[in-house]
Amino acid sequence: MASTERQQNNRKVENQQEIIHAAAICFMRHGLEKTTIDDIARELNATKGRVYHYFRSKNDIFFAIHRQAMRFCFDAVQPILKQNIPADEALMRMATAHGHVMMDTLPYQRSIRLGVDIYLRGSTTEAEREVLMELIALRNEYEGLYRAVMRQGQSEGTLSVPDEALAGRALMGALNGLVDWYRVRPDQTQAERSRIAQTLASTIINGLRPKPTPAARS
Amino acid sequence: MASTERQQNNRKVENQQEIIHAAAICFMRHGLEKTTIDDIARELNATKGRVYHYFRSKNDIFFAIHRQAMRFCFDAVQPILKQNIPADEALMRMATAHGHVMMDTLPYQRSIRLGVDIYLRGSTTEAEREVLMELIALRNEYEGLYRAVMRQGQSEGTLSVPDEALAGRALMGALNGLVDWYRVRPDQTQAERSRIAQTLASTIINGLRPKPTPAARS
DNA sequence: ATGTAGGCATACTACTGAGTATGATGTTTT
DNA sequence: AAAACATCATACTCAGTAGTATGCCTACAT
């Protein structure tokens, strides 16, 4: 029956997600190479058999994590793009949202740091290279969203961005750096997270605002 | 003879540095785990025997790279601290210098990204944990230099830094992000590098300057 | 010239960990 | 109910790699 088939599919996807999540946690803790499939299985209270039933290889798991991580980012930022607000405000909201995503989906985001470039050189099969290129393209597209808003702010006059590529790198660097030092603490309130995200975002974006008295210099 | 002994010591240190450098290049390309000792030896046009003659283990090599990377950073920044200049200017020079170090010593800096935390959990022996703690302390000390200058700027009035810990993270994140995307190109001029370092540094630090008209708001 | 020690290559060992083969158990289909 | 299938556990294989054992060779000391 069709509904049964769909239920089975749901179940399958859920199990895959569960494995991905466990893997992300392991990768966050010990890095990609040092975590074994057995580690992931242990995190699931299961054995290798279960993992290999849903994924062909460790690389496939990493790719799935990466895709998921990018989806988290897009989902957080895209609604803001549809709002009709000044570019500086949009950029501020996007950056804040990105910071939140970094903290909320820490295992995923941390797992993929530096992973792509390293994997790219090492991966043997043609299929893997293709997937990697696709993931890199996704990331470029994502960063492109920020650069587009910066360009818009430049033409609007709400932002002053002489080099939007570099400004984008700076913004991403400051926010992505979260995965290096941020640690989830159970007693931490949502307000505290918001403060972190907003402070990081505004620190960069304040540096991109037009000088209030440009004619007064020298 | 003493002079001979010193020469031998020099030679030994040089050989160690050569191995460290080759290892850093390999680590940059393929990551820590994926590079084998044989890879490092091949980069040296040598064999494992040479590597193990100077280092007890792969971890020891990583530790040496890390120490060297931190030394590069300290050496670039400490002279600036001795100059008698306003804190905002000092911070700007320090950040720019840090950016230069990231580009100039890319293999070292890239090798140690995320490496420490991952190694910390995994390392078994007590001695290794001690070395790692020492390296983490070094890094904290280094970042402390920036925070100290920020505090000074705050009291001087040349900077406005409500949360110097977060501001420090933002600054380090934006600059350290260089190792993720910067690639050495032979045709690239020194001027181009300077532009990158200065743009990144000023983007952050401009966001930390006091508002010119704080009384005029709303 | 000859002993001696550092500098390294070669040839191992021992182990880890990715991926596979197989089968046991439950669940859905007919 | 029994056939077919999905979901896993168990028990392997085998390749790759960190680290070691050994010995040659060269340079320096005496």
TrEMBL record, chains A, B:
InterPro entries: DNA-bd_HTH_TetR-type_CS (IPR023772), Homeodomain-like_sf (IPR009057), HTH-type_TetR-like_transc_reg (IPR050109), HTH_TetR (IPR001647), KstR2_TetR_C (IPR041490), Tet_transcr_reg_TetR-rel_C_sf (IPR036271)
GO MF annotations in UniProt: DNA-binding transcription factor activity; transcription cis-regulatory region binding
Gene3D superfamilies to which the protein is assigned, alphabetical: Homeodomain-like, Tetracycline Repressor, domain 2
Transferase as UniProt keyword: no
Keywords associated with the record: DNA-binding
DNA-binding region: 36-55
Gene: icaR
Every HTH tetR-type domain range: 13-73
Keyword Ligase among UniProt keywords: no
SUPFAM superfamilies tied to this protein: Homeodomain-like, Tetracyclin repressor-like, C-terminal domain
Pfam families reported for this sequence: TetR_C_24 (PF17932), TetR_N (PF00440)
Record protein name field: Intercellular adhesion protein R
PROSITE patterns from the UniProt entry: HTH_TETR_1, HTH_TETR_2
